[in-house]
């Protein structure tokens, strides 16, 4: 599912200073806590007030659940480091703990937004040696010379605090700023996953990359760059399968030079050495670079959202969800926030007049889209639990319609 980017830059120089009423909210909550009696963390009205204070400071990338996690984790850290201490933090003999917890919460809030990097292993990629392929300021493909440690080695002797650093031979990384815990559910990590889906769409539909027939699944790590901490995270299965099978399209790795060329032959030849393959691969990433350089265009959000729904559709395990995802992708391109009445007719008309070349073709396309939307309605309103054999053909139709429309809108955006 698509996630709208809640901030515009990978790096942010804007920092919050916690003082006045906001600092008082932290102090007020800390005074209610008791250490050594069950858990230090306590959910109470003061906690709820502090939670709302944190969200108000960073509402563009942080929700109430994130704020609660920040409070809980700071309490957990203090308690873990002070085993054996007891009593209310309001007591005079616990003044050091009180000041420490206030400082921890304050410091963490002020450290936001932090920068994070999600690295997804490209399990099936060939080993060409060390190289970096820049796609945008926040996306790059990185290859290293050798794997320093295997996951199995690290698991036999895990780093402190459960941190796991997987040293991938080749990976694609996505950077964003905001807040994230060690999962892919936060807004910031979700934004990285959105970029991953968009990138996979561009790379595969342009033919620059393709999927092999392996059963490989990609692993991933998330790095909090502010404190240089890295941990392994669980990827959604669809993304793990997509990137686990991704390989360069060898037929596109062409070198243009005079080697072996004649006046009657194409000057291009297949890349032979690893160095030539790296150079050729960097060249065919032009389409991906061009797309992400168009981020400021008014149509970019709708197109990128449709790309994500397309990826969700083709990698879905459930055909009904795959069908609904394709329909939502079409609505992301043709829908309107202003009117809901006669939606099916309006969407069908927009689709036909956008892609149809003449009247007969437009009428055929209206009928085609209407059939797709009718099945969507039956699925959504539980009049059909699953796709029949005949309906499966409509799934392929819907996915094809979405792909063709995305391409049409992409070229229109590039021309603008």
Mean pLDDT: 85
Q: How many structural domains?
A: 3
Would you report the number of β strands? Answer: 12
**What portion of the residues fall into strands of 2 or more residues?**
5-15%
Please list the strands of the largest sheet in the order they lie side by side: 4-5-6-3-8-9
Distance between the termini: 27 Å
Largest sheet: 6 strands, antiparallel
Task: Name the poorly predicted regions.
Answer: 1-12, 158-164
In quaternary terms, these chains amount to: single chain
Question: Globular, elongated, flat, extended or rod-shaped: what is the shape?
Answer: globular
Structural class: alpha+beta
Order of helices and strands: HEHHEHEEEHEHEEEHEEEHHHHHHH
How large is the radius of gyration? Answer: 26 Å
Helical proportion, percent range: 40-55%
Number of helices: 14
Primary descriptors:
416 residues, alpha+beta, 3 domains, six-stranded antiparallel beta sheet, two-stranded antiparallel ribbon, 14 helices, globular, disordered N terminus
């Amino acid at each position: 599912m698509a996630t709208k980017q809640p901030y515009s830059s990978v790096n942010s120089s804007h920092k919050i200073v916690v003082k006045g009423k906001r600092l008082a909210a932290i102090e007020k909550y800390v005074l209610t806590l008791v250490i050594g009696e069950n858990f230090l963390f306590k959910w109470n009205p003061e906690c709820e007030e502090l939670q709302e204070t944190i969200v108000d400071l960073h509402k563009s990338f942080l929700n109430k659940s994130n704020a609660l996690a920040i409070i809980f984790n700071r309490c957990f850290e203090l308690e873990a480091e002070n085993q054996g201490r007891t009593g209310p933090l309001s007591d005079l003999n616990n003044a050091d703990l009180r000041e420490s917890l206030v400082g921890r919460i304050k410091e963490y809030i002020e450290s936001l937004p932090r920068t994070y990097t999600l690295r997804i292993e490209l399990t099936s990629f060939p080993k060409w040696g060390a190289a970096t392929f820049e796609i945008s300021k926040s996306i790059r493909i990185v290859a290293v010379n050798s794997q320093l440690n295997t996951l199995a080695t690290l698991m036999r002797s895990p780093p402190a605090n459960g941190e796991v650093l997987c040293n991938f031979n080749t990976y694609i990384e996505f950077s964003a700023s905001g807040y994230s815990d060690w999962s892919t559910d936060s807004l910031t990590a979700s934004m990285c996953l959105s970029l991953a889906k968009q990138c996979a769409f561009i790379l595969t539909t342009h033919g620059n990359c393709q999927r092999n027939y392996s059963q490989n699944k990609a692993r991933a790590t998330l790095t909090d760059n502010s404190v240089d901490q890295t941990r392994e995270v669980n990827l959604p299965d669809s993304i793990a399968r997509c990137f686990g099978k991704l390989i360069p399209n060898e037929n596109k790795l062409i070198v243009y030079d005079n080697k072996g060329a004649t006046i009657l032959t194409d000057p291009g030849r297949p890349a032979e050495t690893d160095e030539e393959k790296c150079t050729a691969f960097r060249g065919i990433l032009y389409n991906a670079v061009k797309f992400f350089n168009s981020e400021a265009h008014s149509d970019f959000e709708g197109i990128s959202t449709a790309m994500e729904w397309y990826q969700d559709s083709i990698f879905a395990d459930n055909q009904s969800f795959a069908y609904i995802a394709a329909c939502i992708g079409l609505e992301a391109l043709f829908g309107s926030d202003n009117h809901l009445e006669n939606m099916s007719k309006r969407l069908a008309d927009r689709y036909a007049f956008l892609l149809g070349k003449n009247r007969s073709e437009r009428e055929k396309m209206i009928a085609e889209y209407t059939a797709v939307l009718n099945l969507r309605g039956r699925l959504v309103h539980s009049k059909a639990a699953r796709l029949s054999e005949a309906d499966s053909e409509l799934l392929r139709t819907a996915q094809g319609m979405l792909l063709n429309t995305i391409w049409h809108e992409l070229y229109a955006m590039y021309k603008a």
